[in-house]
Structure to design on (211 residues):
């Protein structure tokens, strides 16, 4: 299958060929017309005065100038059309590359959250047997992911559609420790991206429920 670059190159080549054909055809027609005009004045072999050649030159120049200008305008319009088409293709390629990068980031985030030690910490959190260190590990893991979402590494909705319920559940179980640590360390912004991700997950769930 052809990619976008190949299609753009073929379109550019075809448009250039059309422009060249138009120019050659126009010049050939113009040359034939000028020949007929000169022959109408008696041919090239006929002796003429300077006034005769001046009349021929003025007539040919009057015809030639607008024709050449028209050919130039046609060529310019064709060039602009090709450039516009190439710009659209480049924008499509950039959008495709960005989407692929975001999907790759989502895959890496999934891998990070599915590491055995992180899964084990969440399971113990759910069962109420997690130690303070394991609870902190859950907080740190979701804070890291929240930072990536805030930085635009992946579309938040793309992540929260799958992980939103888990984020909300884990926050409800870790919130007491988060509040206690914020007071003890006098740091109200501790794990703030985790908290913000929980709020985004709640908003995403509300938007997903039909009104």
């Amino acid at each position: 299958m052809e990619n976008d670059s190949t299609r753009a190159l073929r379109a550019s080549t075809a448009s250039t060929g059309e422009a060249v054909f138009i120019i050659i055809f126009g010049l050939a027609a113009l040359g034939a017309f000028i020949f007929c005009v000169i022959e109408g004045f008696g041919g090239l072999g006929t002796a003429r005065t300077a006034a005769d050649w001046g009349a021929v030159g003025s007539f040919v120049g009057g015809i030639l100038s607008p024709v050449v200008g028209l050919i130039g305008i046609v060529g310019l319009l064709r060039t602009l059309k090709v450039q516009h088409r190439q710009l659209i293709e480049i924008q499509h390629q950039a959008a495709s590359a960005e989407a692929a990068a975001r999907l790759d980031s989502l895959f890496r985030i999934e891998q990070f959250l599915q590491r055995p030690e992180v899964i084990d910490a969440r399971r113990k959190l759910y069962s109420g047997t997690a130690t303070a260190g394991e609870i902190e590990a859950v907080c740190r893991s979701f804070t890291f992911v929240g930072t990536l979402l805030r930085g635009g590494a992946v579309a938040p909705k793309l992540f929260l559609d799958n992980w939103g319920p888990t984020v909300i559940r884990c926050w409800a179980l870790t919130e007491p420790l988060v509040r206690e640590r914020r007071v003890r360390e006098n740091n109200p912004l501790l794990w703030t991206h985790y908290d913000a991700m929980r709020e985004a997950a709640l908003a995403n769930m509300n938007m997903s429920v039909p009104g």
Observations:
- Residues 50-113 form the longest helix (64 residues).
- Residues 4-100 form one domain.
